[in-house]
Amino acid sequence: MIYHRLGEIPRKRHTQFRRPDGQLYHEHLMGSEGFSGIASLLYHLRPPTSIVMTKLLKRLEWHADADPLLRMRHFQLAQVPPSSGSTLSRTPILYNRDVALSIVRPADPDDYFYRNAEGDELIFVSEGSGVLESQLGNLAFRSGDYLVVPRGIFYRLVPDVGETRLLVIESAGQIRPPARYVNQCGQFMEHSPYCERDIRRPDSLPVHDEVGEFKLIVKHSNALTEVVLDHHPCDVVGWDGYYYPWALSIHDFEPIVGSLHQPPPVHQTFAGDNFVVCSFVPRLFDFHPEAVPVPYNHSNVMSDEVLFYANSEFMSRKGIEYASLTLHPEGLTHGPQPGRVEAALGRQRTDELAVMLDAFRPLRVARQALEYEDKQYSRSWLGQ
């Protein structure tokens, strides 16, 4: 990622850095992969280790659909009702040991900060705006944003007034830009569909000099633990490094097009361990005079394909709607629905907007998703 700095820090690392009253600030290294991965160095007013108490809130048990029938599936997630907060009320949809997807419509902010100590989070803001607050500063978000929150950073989302809809992707490994788009120094190369100018980082650092009891909810070992600190957790006066939450708008992703149909990897936006995330955005169709713009039939061996539709248009599908999510598992041939090839011939562009996740291990459907399932979806490939 990109080096960033906010607030006041000393000139040299691991040297005395004192408050105006003479007391030392509390240095805190937050990083990944032991001491060999990317990291940031934070300076707190008070020790981040001063915990008043901890207690187990609940164990997290995602139960899978017991039906083993292999089929293409469609979940109408626009029907998921609003809920309080953006973390504890998420509705599980799909999961395996590498990645999990859930949906949430927070009507108000949480009254605590949340830390995922099991993996990175990629939050797609399908609708809404607001501010992501963390100990590394504030980051404004808006509709169409991807929010990347690395493992262990505590945060809370404060939505603005109005509808907010979030697709949450949790990853057991690091979420990162695709390796083929960055050079050996980590700089985005010229052929990348986005670059450093498109990435937004925390831009303000409110310092909370407050004592009392302040609650964190920590996800760890498939359980939620309540941790109470004796001070406000956002008491960082300055930090620098490479480890922080960041945002990328899907609207800043520049599509790669060609004279003939381009395969899905040209839409890749993020890499994970055993999965990828792609962005389908408005773009010109293929410009060869005999081009077939929609995807050809394909067998995705060792890959489950998931699509979340951020609007109601998609060139190769019919019967989907805004906030639909489809799952096309490995073992079945994927391809356009009847009539979609002919309908696309001669068209100049598409205005679709969708997030795709390809998982390289089979995904399981969570039971909570079943009440939103369109059970006739797989028959839509039979034509009339």
Describe the overall structure.
By secondary structure, the protein is mainly beta. The chain folds into 2 domains: 4-63 and 82-249, Jelly Rolls; 254-382, Jelly Rolls (Sandwich). It is 1% helix and 37% strand. It contains 1 helix and 26 strands. Strands 4-16-15-8-13-10-11 form a 7-stranded mixed sheet, with no helix packed on it. A hairpin with a 3-residue loop joins strand 6 (91-95) and strand 7 (99-104). The longest helix is centred in the last third of the chain and has 5 residues, at 340-344. The radius of gyration is 22 Å and the shape is globular. 35% of the residues are buried. The model has no long low-confidence stretch (mean pLDDT 93).
Structure at a glance:
The protein is mostly beta strands and 384 residues long. Helix content is 1%, strand content 37%.
- What fold name goes in the CATH topology slot of the largest domain? Jelly Rolls
How much helical structure, as a percent, in the residues?
A: under 10%
Beta-strand content: 35-45%
Rg over alpha carbons:
22 Å
- Spans of 5+ residues with little confidence (pLDDT < 50)? none
What is the CATH homology-level superfamily of the largest domain? Answer: Jelly Rolls
* C-alpha termini separation: 50 Å
Total E-strand runs: 26
CATH class of the largest domain: Mainly Beta
**Total number of domains:** 2
What's the architecture of the largest domain, going by CATH?
A: Sandwich
Query: What spatial order of strands do you see in the largest sheet?
Result: 4-16-15-8-13-10-11
Structural class: mainly beta
- Let me know the largest β-sheet: 7 strands, mixed
Q: Indicate the overall shape.
A: globular
Mean pLDDT: 93
